[in-house]
Every structure is written in structure tokens, then in C-alpha cells.
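Quick one, C-alpha cells below. Sequence please?
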């Protein structure tokens, strides 16, 4: 199974493509969609959708996984985060990918072992678990962790444990 994973954000959207075939997960791609602060929000949303669509066409993932909505103190931040998630979900849906979401604590628990892990701990574990030659930036690391969480949830479903929720 090949997963497109997205850590949605308007300015720095983490993305990863992870293949979980043959019982070993490997990162095929990871990076961050950077949108300049000078870009209008609407232009950022188009850029996110377009770049994700390009990745989908290039890597042909089987599904998409995202981090679920997190608590934010500012309504403006919540609206922008929701819009970025919407652009990501739209790109996946337009390309026929089922979309799954996972709570941030579940992602950290599944990949680091503690739901309160810090960004640098997530990046360290992604490098170790996926045998990467470089440390991923925080947004890419989060996307890689989302992908691994989905692959592990998929394994749980195969053995009859509750796993994932499609949106």
C-alpha cells in the first residue's frame, strides 16, 4: 500500500509518500510545500492543491492520510488550517483517493511511543524508522509519521483490531 500523507498548513504543508509493501515501510518522497507570506491565502490553497495533484500523478498512492483538526487558540488560525485541509482533501478526492484522518496524539503514540512527543523527537524517529539519510524538517517528519500511523492502522484492521476512520 502506498500512502500520501499530509500535515496540512497554509504556509508550510508537510507531505510524504510512503510505501508499505513487502512488510517494510520506505519513504518514496517527503518535503514541504512552502507558500510565501506575500501570497494571498487563496493562491496558497491553489498551490497546495496543484502540488498535491502533481505528487498523486507521479507516485500513484492508494490513499491519503491527514492529521485531524487540532485545537488552536485563534479562530483565524483555525479557519486557515481548515482551508488548507480542504485543499488537501479536495486534491485527494478529485484523484479518487480515500481519505483517512488521525488525531495528533495517536500519530505520536504510534510512531514515537508517547502522545506528548516533541517535533524533534518525531523527526528523529522518522529518520530511524525509515532509514533516512537526512533528518526531515518538522513538517515533513509529521507527514511521514501520519503515513506510518496509517500503515500500522491498516495492519491492525487486517488482524481484526479497530483501526482507521475514513472521512
Amino acid at each position: 500500500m502506498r500512502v500520501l500523507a499530509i500535515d496540512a498548513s497554509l504556509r508550510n504543508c508537510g507531505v510524504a509518500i510512503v510505501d508499505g509493501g513487502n512488510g517494510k515501510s520506505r519513504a518514496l518522497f517527503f518535503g514541504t510545500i512552502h507558500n510565501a507570506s506575500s501570497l494571498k491565502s487563496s493562491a496558497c490553497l491553489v498551490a497546495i492543491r496543484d502540488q498535491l495533484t502533481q505528487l498523486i500523478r507521479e507516485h500513484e498512492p492508494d490513499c491519503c492520510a491527514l492529521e485531524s483538526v487540532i485545537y488552536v487558540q485563534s479562530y483565524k488560525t483555525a479557519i486557515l488550517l481548515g482551508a488548507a485541509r480542504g485543499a488537501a482533501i479536495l486534491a485527494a478526492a478529485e484523484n479518487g483517493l480515500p481519505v483517512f484522518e488521525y488525531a495528533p496524539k495517536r500519530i505520536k503514540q504510534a510512531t514515537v511511543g508517547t502522545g506528548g512527543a516533541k517535533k524533534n523527537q518525531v523527526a528523529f524517529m522518522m529518520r530511524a524508522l525509515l532509514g533516512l539519510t537526512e533528518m526531515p524538517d518538522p513538517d515533513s517528519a509529521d507527514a511521514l509519521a501520519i503515513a506510518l500511523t496509517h500503515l500500522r492502522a491498516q495492519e491492525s484492521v487486517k488482524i481484526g483490531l479497530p483501526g482507521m476512520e475514513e472521512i
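Helices lie at 41-59, 75-94, 104-111, 119-130, 138-158. The radius of gyration is 15 Å.
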